[in-house]
């Protein structure tokens, strides 16, 4: 059940930290849901060896490490935040992880590979709640299947020229012009944007938030 909406005041009263500077995640949490989360981007380098993880394990561990870094940094005075949220999103094509493109050539290559095919968008989320001693962790992953229409070389070139692909996993944004390439989706739309809103609301531990509310 989604219980968060029935007690939004308790959620907003809690000291919630988003360990991400992603404009899309900030928009979902603070503009769509109006949670008033404080944005503290993580300094975790995201240098995990992909060969040691499945795609689902990879995004979960990235999200966890991002949240742990921020939680530790903000807890040095003995007053940890009520909740730190970490997240990581990747595109997976035939078991291969596609992250943000390093350059325009990489963006062209990714879009060419996605053209006319189905792929998976995975977001790992880590929820770290204040506890006595170590934080209480809840880490999960949400997956959405996305179908791309065939893309011509000219269309890919024009899209890359807009600059939109350059800060997005898989080199496209479903909430932007890249959404025009999507001809089917199975699962959570917000997950493809960068944060699985429904799953977050289901997983949120209201009891733990109330225990550490600022109200």
Task: Give an overview of the whole structure.
The protein is α/β, with parallel strands linked by helices. The chain has one domain (4-212): Maf protein, CATH 3.90.950.10. Helices cover 35% and strands 23% of the residues. It has eight helices and seven strands; from the N terminus they run αβαβαββαββαβααα. Strands 1, 2, 3, 4, 5, 6 and 7 form a seven-stranded mixed beta sheet that branches. A hairpin with a 6-residue loop joins β5 and β6. The longest helix has 20 residues, at 55-74. It is elongated and about 55 Å long. The model has no long low-confidence stretch (mean pLDDT 92). InterPro entries: ITPase-like_fam, Maf-like. Keywords: Hydrolase. Pfam families: Maf. One of its GO terms (molecular function) is nucleoside triphosphate diphosphatase activity.
SSE layout and pairing:
Elements: H1 8-13, E1 16-18, H2 23-32, E2 38-39, H3 55-74, E3 83-93, E4 96-98, H4 104-114, E5 118-129, E6 136-148, H5 153-162, E7 182-186, H6 189-193, H7 197-203, H8 206-211
Parallel strand pairs: 1-2, 1-3
Antiparallel strand pairs: 3-4, 3-5, 5-6, 6-7
Helix pairs in contact: 4-5
Describe, in short, the structure shown:
Strands 1, 2, 3, 4, 5, 6 and 7 form a 7-stranded mixed β-sheet that branches.
